[in-house]
Amino acid sequence: xxxxxxxxxxxxxxxxxxxxxxxxxxxxxxxxxxxxxxxxxxxxxxxxxxxxxxxxxxxxxxxxxxxxxxxxxxxxxxxxxxxxxxxxxxxxxxxxxxxxxxxxxxxxxxxxxxxxxxxxxxxxxxxxxxxxxxxxxxxxxxxxxxxxxxxxxxxxxxxxxxxxxxxxxxxxxxxxxxxxxxxxxxxxxxxxxxxxxxxxxxxxxxxxxxxxxxxxxxxxxxxxxxxxxxxxxxxxxxxxxxxxxxxxxxxxxxxxxxxxxxxxxxxxxxxxxxxxxxxxxxxxxxxxxxxxxxxxxxxxxxxxxxxxxxxxxxxxxxxxxxxxxxxxxxxxxxxxxxxxxxxxxxxxxxxx
Length: 352
Prior knowledge:
This protein is α/β, with parallel strands linked by helices. It has two domains: 3-139 and 296-317, NAD(P)-binding Rossmann-like Domain (Rossmann fold), CATH 3.40.50; 140-294 and 328-348, Dihydrodipicolinate Reductase, domain 2, CATH 3.30.360.10. It is built from 13 helices and 15 strands. A hairpin with a 2-residue loop joins strand 13 and strand 14. Helix 1 (12-21) runs parallel beside helix 2. It is globular. The mean pLDDT is 95.
């Protein structure tokens, strides 16, 4: 039987999920919820227009006819759902997740899963107490790049990492407010942080220098640029370099993640959602592989099957892992604010 899915938040990132879920024969999108009905209907129309000629009608018709709610609690009460995609901006998490958990619904929550670590830990605890599957939107964990890089690194000792995330300021008003977006590392470069945690080890300490050089306080509260020194739990060191002032373009090398290990360097070039190149440099020379996969589609199908078959192990990016990634990015922000190193464990050790 197909998994009956509701969406809370029907904006940009929901559109990306919908384009994938609506081609999954094991899923049916049967209900939508958004505080802006006009924007939600625009998303629905856009997705249907894109898929109508290619996706099976039995998958599209339930979505085309799905009722649109303004209140998630009402949707949870009135619709027969098996799972929920929570595609909200960072500041809006909390009540929706608790209401879905109370209704006994597994969740896939887009990153960052919250802006408050205590809130995220309470949600994680509520999922665990109810025995519900909780997934987070870190699709890079589902990319074929991960096993490829892991096999390439083998058991070599890693000495250092270098990660970049350069971008322009997104055209969404909430993004410019620190209390609503969390800033670039919490909202965007969280993907790089999560992949580093997965491929290298947990990050134990973050020490950040940040600046606001181009945007003014009137146009943006978040940092324009930051340089972070990272210390990993396994003893490796690294840096995470970010900016939001390079909308004019970036140097070709300034993308992705570089891992310097004993006898080789592995570079993952590109960002999540793109075709990526893996470059491996050894004493024998340089080799490149381009890996093209839709990791968000793999992620969404894994969640659907985890729910259908009661197999939480299919979820590679759990909500609990997302809490640890959130703690690392919040440590980054606290260090930028205080000018002092911050231990990630100290944040996680605080009572939820």
